[in-house]
Amino acid sequence: MLAEIKSAVGVSADLIPGSAGIFEVKKDGVVIFSKNKLGRFLKEGEIAELLTKVQSPE
Q1: What's the rounded Cα separation, in Å, for the pair 58 and 47?
Q2: Distance CA 28, CA 14 (A)
Q3: Interhelix angle for 46-53 vs 2-9, to 10°?
Q4: Using the 8-state DSSP alphabet, how is residue 49 labeled?
């Protein structure tokens, strides 16, 4: 997943351990994917698509 993020947006990402099966992807503090809300894990290539679609707050 780190390689996919690096390839998609050209930055390194931090993985922060969680608990209770929570898995979220945040960009600039904004949740762009929540396993808890969607009831599923990311599909292959989905993280790259989400990261490139979401605009950073200005």
Answers
A1: 22
A2: 12
A3: 40
A4: H
- Give residue for tokens 């390689």: 3
- The DSSP code sequence of 14-28 is -----STT--EEEET
Q: What is the pLDDT of residues 3-42, one digit of tens each?
A: 888 888 888 888 888 788 888 888 888 899 999 899 999 9
Is residue 42 within 8 A of residue 25, CB to CB? The reply is yes
Q: Which two tokens stand for residue 35?
A: 């396993």
The size of the chain, in residues, is: 58
Two tokens at 44?
């292959």
Rounded to two decimals, the pTM is 0.72
Q: Alpha carbon of 39 to those of 6, 24, 35, 44: distances in Å?
A: 25, 12, 5, 16
